[in-house]
Recover the amino acids of this structure.
């Protein structure tokens, strides 16, 4: 962790990080996947690997607010199917971080995000989805859950970019807006908290990074409140398009940086 960088950011850089923290809150309660923009801002202001350690506690604050808002809408059968595969992906991501450089991380995740967005758009043109997700009960559904779970665990560990991958899975599984937000809220709270020991062990989180997090966390709440207000004014089709668009933007940002 380059602690000197954390202590020597300019007012404009802090303002950019604050805006990114506000967007984290918005993405957690409105358009999941939009926080890929926050990821890009943090990585632009701070060293790439250090930025993941600073961003993780901010994401956890957003996850807590999302759980408090949408806790009644979580679909736990889907969550239980995903967690073992996600755990495997987190372990693989940790190993990857030990030897991979920033360019390899960005390119790999950007390509995965664009692939997931393309697959989801293709699937949604093929058929209408059910009101209540049940795909995890079939063999094909289980394979899909495991595949997305490993990818989600990998991308969330190496760059806090698991949101778009899991957004693509939840959309493809037929989740409606509130079920989508409730399920993803619990998913990312549990996964992000489980990543903390790995990040500490890799030196990505320390006392200096947590002090910066304490200053930025205050901006997550207004973002979450804006998201809660906005989500009731977004219809299902627009919601899905915004999620996919945020995923594409995040993937392109990672590839083109």
């Amino acid at each position: 962790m380059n602690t000197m960088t954390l202590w020597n950011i300019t007012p404009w850089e802090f303002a950019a990080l604050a805006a990114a923290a506000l967007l984290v809150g918005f993405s957690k309660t409105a358009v999941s996947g939009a926080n890929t923009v926050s990821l890009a801002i943090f990585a632009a202001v701070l060293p790439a690997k250090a930025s993941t350690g600073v961003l993780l506690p901010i994401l956890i604050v957003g996850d807590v607010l999302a759980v408090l808002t949408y806790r009644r809408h979580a679909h736990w059968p889907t969550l239980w199917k995903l967690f073992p595969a996600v755990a495997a992906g987190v372990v693989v991501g940790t190993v990857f971080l030990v030897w991979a450089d920033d360019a390899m991380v960005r390119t790999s995740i950007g390509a995965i995000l664009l692939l997931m967005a393309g697959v989801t758009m293709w699937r949604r043109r093929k058929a209408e989805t059910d009101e209540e997700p049940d795909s995890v009960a079939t063999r094909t559904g289980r394979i899909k859950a495991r595949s997305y779970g490993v990818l989600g665990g990998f991308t969330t560990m190496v760059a806090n970019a698991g949101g778009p991958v899991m957004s693509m899975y939840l959309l493809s599984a037929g989740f409606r807006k509130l079920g989508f937000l409730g399920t993803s809220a619990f998913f990312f709270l549990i996964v992000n908290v489980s990543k903390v020991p790995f990040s500490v062990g890799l030196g990505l989180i320390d006392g200096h990074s947590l002090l910066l997090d304490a200053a930025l966390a205050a901006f997550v709440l207004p973002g979450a409140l804006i998201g809660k207000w906005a989500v009731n004014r977004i219809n299902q089709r627009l919601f899905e398009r915004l999620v996919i668009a945020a995923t594409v933007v995040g993937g392109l940002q990672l590839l083109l940086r």
